[in-house]
Amino acid sequence: MDEVKVVIAHSERATLRVGDVFLKVDSDPARLDREVEVMALVPVPAPRVLWHKPSVLAISAVPGTVLGRIGTPSTSSPAAWAAAGAVVRELHDAPAPPWPGGGGQGIDELAAKLDEECERLVRDGLLPANLVARNRRVAAAALRPWTPVFTHGDLHITHVFADGDEITGIIDWSEGGQGDALRDLATLTLGHPEHLGDVVAGYGGDVDLDVVRAWWSLRSLLVVRWLAEHGFDPFSPRGEADVLRARM
Question: How far apart are CA 119 and CA 117, in angstroms?
Fold first, then answer.
């Protein structure tokens, strides 16, 4: 009999694996509804929806292993990282859904959210004031007009699977929709700056690396407190806190 493995669990959602089936349980059924809609539109490898009921989604396992993890060096080849960039480009070039994806706030709204989070990080003593201030200045470069494209919205490195040099699938599409292409590239390479060149080579075209790096600061500032409050460790080596320190 297959064991039940907890992949991830916190107060908002949980993912379980039973054999080759993943069960996603979400406190917000609409989020799972949206994920099913997005996966029906994506032009890149993604899990197959097996069944879907309110608050629960069953999907097939994706072959291969994750491209890497935050906190440890990636063992995936430069070619695999480049292949990930090419797959992301294919997604960004596809017709986008009519709804905003993760981080779909307007520039002013995102800036206000960032300022509020920076204030809380300092007030709660999670990060030093000078570290927060420096990264807030770096993050400003990401707060510019962009042309919306079809984005994953939460393209964390553990959401991308590879087999050798081939990308076999991308998972967790609940944040998919219209968004900033460079946010996806930044999220994918967060904590792995040594592979940014590989990803950009596969992605092709002009990529503003300063904006990608600005998104590293912006995303890290926004998630440090949430991660700490939900049982994750943003202070692990190569984690979000280290990403912020690198900007100093």
Answer: 5
Please count the structural domains in the chain. Answer: 1
pLDDT tens digit sequence for 58-74:
999 999 999 999 888 89
In a domain, 16, yes or no: no
| pLDDT of the residue at 57 | 95
Residue 24, in any domain of the structure: no
- Domain span holding position 181: 63-246
Are 178 and 97 in contact by the 8 Å Cβ rule? The answer is: yes
Tell me 247's DSSP state: T
Each as own residue / partner, the long-range contacts of residues 74-82 (CB below 8 Å, 24 or more positions apart, any chain) are 74/157, 74/192, 74/195, 76/162, 77/164, 77/165, 78/195, 78/198, 79/165, 79/198, 80/162, 80/164, 80/165, 80/166, 80/167, 81/195, 81/198, 81/199, 81/202, 82/198, 82/199, 82/201, 82/202
- pTM for the model stands at 0.93
